[in-house]
## 1
Amino acid sequence: MKYVLIGAGPAGVRAAETLRKEDPTGEITLVGGEPGEPYARMAIPYVLNRSIDETGALQRKTELHYDHQRIRYLNRKALKVHAREDGGTVDLDDGTVLDYDRLLVATGSSPSLPPIPGTDLPGVVTCWTLEDARAIAEKLKPGNRVVMVGAGFVAGVCMKSLVGTGVKLSVIAGRAGQILRTMMAPAGSSMMQRWLEERGVDVITKGRTERIEPGPRLVMDTQVIEADLIILATGVKPNVSFLEGTGARIDQGVVVDHFMRTTVPHVYAAGDVAQGRDFSTGEWVVHALQPTATEHGRIAALNMAGKHMPYRGSLSMNVLDIGGLISHTFGQWQGVEGGEMVEEVDEKNFLYTRLCFKNDRMVGAITIGNCNHVGAIRGLIQTRRHLGEWKEKLMHNPHKVMAAFVDLGQHKAVPETA
Ligand SMILES: Cc1cc2nc3c(=O)[nH]c(=O)nc-3n(C[C@H](O)[C@H](O)[C@H](O)COP(=O)(O)OP(=O)(O)OC[C@H]3O[C@@H](n4cnc5c(N)ncnc54)[C@H](O)[C@@H]3O)c2cc1C
């Protein structure tokens, strides 16, 4: 059996290793579109503030790991997939044509640049690749002025490496008017904003970014900011152009079924590029998170190797450390229709807890500053436990969540479909 995996991020690498275990004689080719050995983007914030070197970002650190696994690793870009009923071929950018019986698309996504002039000027970067990390690291000198355009998850994870380096950091929240809007309730966002401001970060929640001029200089309708570096973190788009003409269904990402199969015969998808099942809602979404990517990769590979393994869905969970203030966001933290929510805010001590319920089950949560309960919260959400009388107790005092978890732990977990 010939397996081709396009993309050597966490999804592709986990899939390749799983295939090797499941099919000891299969031919496995892993195609990664960036120079060097496969690395994890999650390590980029640590590379850019130099708390690890680039080898620390590699996904597998044992020398010749891929050779030992008999995984052929090619540093090339896939340009086009030609799919047939019984398999197909992939054209690479050096003219190589790879035959496949089973294909995995694990190409992740790329930053989508804001539609303004000047995004290609010197001193303007994204925060996505090791190359970006090198460019940013060079500019992290005390007194330098850094502007982060965008205030979502990737901007958030990079901020922890920028705060405390002595750079003057401005963060442009843009039209959202709120930082971390996709993972944080307004009360939590404003607490995190205040935390950043107390550490010298200029958080700009008003005004529209119009263009970037040489310098670089960020021109807004409200002000002009001179900078040494402008980092664009304004969203992403899935890497799918090579699938054009195959009939693959693309929505937010490549749409897959319960077995990570795309709509094209023998073609699977996994990771940030795939629109897979959400554990909490049962809907099909892109969860751009490393644990989701590796699990997608594993399940896709099992199915490619002939196992019939459904994917139960991933729990949306973001952990963020912005310069020492740590937040956790789980599941349906926005709340659900007909559900209930309790929120506790301790502004003075930067502590925030929000629990969301549907009937007597916890379906989502946010914590800021208090990490002690996150294991219990995650456990209660993932096992879909009936809380019984604990639900009311938690509505009155959300801090009792560990007590609830311990007490309820003696009872049996509820199956997913219940
Ligand atoms: C700065 C940063 C920090 C992050 N921090 C966290 C975190 O703390 N926690 C967390 O859970 N997640 C984090 N993430 C998200 C996490 O990195 C992604 O969810 C994860 O990398 C997805 O893995 P993937 O394998 O699907 O895609 P990717 O890791 O994006 O890998 C895609 C691979 O496909 C290759 N590729 C793309 N197009 C082609 C092509 N045409 N031909 C060949 N190869 C191609 C790329 O070169 C790459 O090898 C972070 C992301 C960034 C950018």
Note: Confidence is low (pLDDT under 50) at residues 414-418.
## 2
Amino acid sequence: MTTHSDPGPGAAPAIELRGASKVFRTPSGAGHTAVRDLGLTVRQGEFVAVVGPTGCGKSTTLTLVSGLEEPTEGQVLIGGEPVTGIRPEVGFVFQQDAVFPWRTVLSNVMAGPRFRGVPKAAAKERARDWLGRVGLAAFEDRYPHQLSGGQRKRVALAQTFVGEPRILLMDEPFSALDVQTRALMSDELLELWGGASAPDTAASVVFVTHDLEEAIALADRVVVMTAGPATVKEVFAVDLPRPRQVESVRLEPRFIEIYREIWSSLGEEVRITRERGAGHAA
Ligand SMILES: Nc1ncnc2c1ncn2[C@@H]1O[C@H](COP(=O)(O)OP(=O)(O)O)[C@@H](O)[C@H]1O
Ligand SMILES: [Mg+2]
């Protein structure tokens, strides 16, 4: 008799979408399909970027993975288990900062651990550690309105990483920043993530952006979504060595080659979306 050994929890992909669709009900009662038949696998410690035209369903895809919304059809799995709600091991960074304006920087970063029952002294220590890593050690007593956009984004990153997420979901997190701050934040994100040096312990990342350059500079693989309702059109491996510096990596010939290749897929979907927009305006 043969016995099959248990593949163990390490064998399951970190994130898996299987034929996942999401239909929203509109005020008129009709159904609006936001994403359809999504199939995607993210490995442990992998950095995946999702690109697609505006309004195609990128954010919806993330809300399915986060457990904020349930798929209408299909399955969403984390570590091989169906997602049934928001999980403590999932960290989320949005385009808008999710900081409390009436709390200091330190208190903002402590809030998550405190909420999860970490004693005050330990929460403070962890928060200070992460504030140090994002370069805000000297700013712990400031309030969010006393910070620059980039500094507020660093608070948001510290807030997220202090929870030691196994899964990190990012929805256009840097799109409100100026170009230089954005490049800086991308480099800092790659360092905080640590996937280049410690793939076994690094978080598995899904990073949504409409910016193809940003996607290639950051990711191990780039997923191109179709015009809405989105499904996965093509997946591209980014074989650029790590560690990467986003400002310099984008000048490399291989980067430009990859960019051309992916754009030939993505550009078509962007055009379709634009033409629809023009149709609506007419
Ligand atoms: N909660 C919701 N209820 C109804 N429609 C929604 C909801 N969230 C998103 N949509 C619609 O689903 C589509 C995809 O939206 P979204 O995922 O936000 O796109 P993206 O992030 O790619 O710009 C859009 O047409 C949007 O209007
Ligand atoms: Mg969005």
Note: The chain has two domains: 1-89+170-282, 98-164.
